Amino acid sequence: MLIRLTYASLLAPHCDQACIDEIVAKSAPANQARGITGILAVDGDHVLQILEGPETVVLGLFEHIRRDDRHQGVVEIDRTSIEATHFEAWGMVKRSMADAVMMSESI
Ligand SMILES: Cc1cc2nc3c(=O)[nH]c(=O)nc-3n(C[C@H](O)[C@H](O)[C@H](O)COP(=O)(O)O)c2cc1C
User: Is 73 within the bounds of a domain?
Assistant: First the structure.
């Protein structure tokens, strides 16, 4: 079963632009290799991430991400089963918060 999971969190003070860029650079190929797609939006210290893919794989990754000390206060906002992934072109791509909210409202 495919799911789409959305969560919000707050970046840790030590996670600067270079830290975010590293997360995106590593996540894109890692996600693609696992059959996960998604977007990551960062606005100031606010993070919104949408992950899509096979349920067990997404939940396993989310457990990993939850424990990452580069962010805190991870709150799952939504978990939905889906027919097909929406962000199939990307393993992970960074978008503005406004774009991410618009995308999450249009899917
Ligand atoms: C906000 C945030 C988003 C992340 N998103 C992903 C992601 O989409 N895919 C991924 O593989 N790792 C992501 N990570 C990194 C993981 O927490 C973890 O460091 C990564 O999976 C590598 O784990 P490993 O060092 O045990 O191999 C994210 C980390 C943070 C702080």
Answer: yes
